[in-house]
Structures are given as C-alpha cells and as structure tokens.
Specification:
With 112 residues, the protein is α+β, with helices and mostly antiparallel strands. The chain is 21% helix and 36% strand. The chain contains three helices and five strands. Strands 1, 2, 3, 4 and 5 form a five-stranded antiparallel beta sheet that branches.
Length: 112
Amino acid sequence: MAAQRTDPGSLLHLVRRLIALRRAGPALRTGGPCQVLHAGYPLVYPRGGTHLVVINPRREPAAAAIGFGREPVPVLADRVTAGAAAVEAGELSYGIFELLPAARSGLNQLAG
C-alpha cells in the first residue's frame, strides 16, 4: 500500500480519481439514469445525458457502432476511443466521456 501512495499510476490513485469523478457529477452517482447502447462487449451506456461510459473486461479488443449523435470528450479513459457513431476499446479497458451539448457538437441530442 505504501508503494501505491507514491505512484500516481497505481490502482489506489485510479480508484481515488474514479470516486472524485463520481462525487463531482450527479449523473455518475448511484441511481442516475442509464440506457444501454451496446449490451455486448464493449458495454456502452450514457449516464444522465451528460456522460458516456465504455467498459471492456475482455482480454481482446472490441468495437461497437452506437450511432449516438453527440461527440464524447474523454474525462478518464484507458485504451478507449469514442466518437458520435462508434467506440473502440482495447483489452481490459474503460472510458468515461463527457458528452458535448448538441449545440456545441452540431448533432442531435440523445433521444429517450
């Protein structure tokens, strides 16, 4: 544990960043609205209309066409790229993205 405290890339620091992110964004807290866009791998779902979450627990890369229509901006991600139409996730990867408002992205807002 002492070694993790001094290593900014450690699991301890990652968990702390994830907790801080969850506390800072109401959409990421418990009970926030969620709609699954891709139920296979990678698992892809928006939270509260403001964030997009991508998780790939497999030991092989995965991709999904999502046709989301809003541009995601990385907040905290490891080996995941996301665009308005598709996501690509490396093995054992995750990503949390902020969704640009429709006016800024020039695209339609999420329906539903």
